[in-house]
Recover the amino acids of this structure.
């Protein structure tokens, strides 16, 4: 039964990562690509890590998977913020698509 759960987690995580990759290719601007690169990719990786932990179910593997998950959850939002900030400053965004632009002058 654990192998089935692990397989479902791995396949679901892989599909989430695939949708993130498709979003990176298909979305039109930096801000929407940033969303595709962080949210489904992070969830996909966490599901894959959960599948690995469920399959192996040993303390060293669970410790390593937990460490990777923590680093992913800490670094992905920071990286997304920096990409969005630099894209905004460089003018690589579509102002018409922003509902509220708190950084605009005036």
């Amino acid at each position: 039964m654990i192998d089935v759960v692990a397989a479902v987690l791995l396949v679901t995580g892989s599909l989430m990562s695939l949708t993130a990759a498709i979003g990176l290719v298909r979305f039109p601007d930096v801000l929407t690509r940033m969303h595709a690169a962080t949210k489904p990719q992070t969830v996909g990786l966490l599901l894959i890590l959960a599948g690995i932990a469920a399959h192996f179910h040993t303390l060293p593997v669970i410790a390593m998977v937990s460490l990777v998950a923590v680093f992913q959850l800490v670094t992905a939002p920071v990286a997304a913020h920096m990409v969005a900030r630099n894209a905004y400053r460089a003018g690589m965004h579509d102002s018409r698509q922003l509902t509220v632009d708190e950084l605009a002058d005036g």
